[in-house]
Amino acid sequence: MFHALKSRAELLAKIRQFFVEREVLEVETPLLGASTIPDPNIHSFTSQYFNSALYLQTSPEFAMKRLLAAGSGSIYQICKAFRNEDCGKQHNPEFTMLEWYRVGFDHHQLMDEMDALLRYVLGGTPAERLTYAAMFEKFLQLDPHAASLAELQNCAVMHGINKVDNLERDDWLNLLLTHLIEPHLGKERPTFIYDYPASQAALAQINNGVAERFEVYIDGLELANGFHELGDAKEQRARFEADLAKRRALNSPEIPLDEEFLAALASGFPACAGVALGIDRLLMVLLNTRDLKDVLFISLATN
Amino acid sequence: MASISTNEFKSGLKVMLDGDPCSIIENEFVKPGKGQAFNRVKIRNLKTGRMLERTFKSGESIQAADVVEMELQYLYNDGEFAHFMHPETYEQYSTDKTAIGDTAKWLKEQDMYTVTLWDGAPISVQPPIFVFLKVTETDPGLKGDTATGGSKPATLETGATVRVPLFVNIGDLLKIDTRTGEYVSRAKE
Predict the structure, then answer these.
(1) Which end of chain A has the least Cβ crowding within 10 Å, N or C?
(2) Rg of the Cα trace of chain A?
């Protein structure tokens, strides 16, 4: 246990050193906000502040983007993030996140920097990079951009997975990814997957038909998710509205949109790329364990 | 029965799947970076004993199964059904051959067994880890031979056949491990 505590302290010190050397500014933003992310697959904790609701932030993204819009330049933050979701060996409702934004970078330049950071804290060799399409081709001989829902479903069934009701096309892609591909990613060296289907853009720019988004895997564990950030306030609002429509269809709670964030985008947002990396999981990799309980002295994880 | 959401899944939970009562052995929450999360669950079918893997969309609900385990005393077999009794309430339960399965060869009158009931009816019968049974048939024992390590078949009072050391005689009481079906030792009455 004390070994894990000490390793965490050293890891955080190293990360801060890495960004000091690159002149990226450390910032803090509120963990409680009057709004939160409307993504129907991300569940926020709600707290009560007198007569109004406040949400524990699922990531510092919107607040940090307001700083970027205000002209902060490149920034990073190490903070707690909260998700009202299942516990497990790789999930705890409260976790530590490193999030950083690089003004003037695209997702490829940010992957370079991510690679440098991973080597700085973990050692090892440079990461391999695969497009989302190349990854599906390599492991499942499928074109994820063209395959029909039925083809994706058949692929799952062929690999011994049961049919799951009410899944959309992207859900099947995610099922195949999590069940059949992720366990093989980042085995010899870290794997970066980039250029996601446009339908899975989240807050990334869509160019040439793909979302300029990337994820980082080490030894089957997903560590980070990055975007060539969307700066178009109108497009951002449209994506939020689509999320809200999905929420309504699922009978999920309504979320008030973060109008201050949208206004910040509209006021002029610098071209940038940003990424969030799970520190607890990074520590799991460093300490060679598959269980969060080994890196969290106290956690809600039970199974 | 109540319905149970995937976020309540934990090992030991009894649920209905494809019309059969099942027990959750292991529950793993899997979530991609963005998008739909899943619960990947290892499940045992309590009727067949078979293990299977199932993926659920997180947030989905399934029916709970009314499954209880009881320690019951075995009374007798009427040729079609085996009859058990609760030692305190004296309530009786009859089970067919399917529910008894391989446990049939370890059933001895008066002994206690773990019976799994689904909606009040037995679906499986588990013997204790060790049972004590008398030898009814075996070749004559070799007196004093406790060291050569040879073995021979012996039939026990329940009809089970086990390999026993050469010194074992008809009428001996033996301790048997029901997990492996192997002889452990001789026992005193």
Answers:
(1) N
(2) 19
Residue A212 backbone phi and psi in degrees, to 5: -85, 75
Identify the pLDDT of residue B145.
Answer: 58
CATH code (residue A267):
3.30.930.10
The answer as to whether A178 is a domain residue is no
Residue A101 in any domain: the answer is yes
- Best to test chain B binding among A39, A41, A195 (most B CBs inside 10 Å): A41
Classify strands A45-49 and B82-85 as parallel, antiparallel or unpaired: unpaired
pLDDT at B4: 95
Of A279, A227, A261, nearest in space to A33 by CA: A261
**Number of domain units in chain A:** 1
Beta bridge partners of A53: A48
> Is A225 inside a domain boundary?
yes
Question: Is the alpha carbon torsion for A130, A136, A139, A141 positive or negative?
Answer: negative
- Residue A291's alpha-carbon distances to A79, A90, A94, B1, in angstroms, are 21, 6, 15, 34
What's the complex ipTM?
A: 0.90
Distances from the Cα of B107 to the Cα of B77, B82, B91, angstroms: 9, 9, 19
**Domain span at residue A39?**
2-127+189-302
**CA–CA dist A200, A225 (Å, integer):** 12
Judge whether A113 lies within some domain.
yes
Q: Do A175 and B37 touch (CB under 8 A)?
A: no
Nearest to B38 among A85, A178, A215 (CB): A178
pTM above 0.90, yes or no: no
The answer to whether A225 contacts B58, with C-beta atoms less than 8 Å apart, is: no
What's the mean pLDDT in A108-113? 98
What is the per-residue DSSP string for A47-93? EEETTEEEEE-S-SHHHHHHHHHTT--SEEEEEEEE--S--BTTB-S
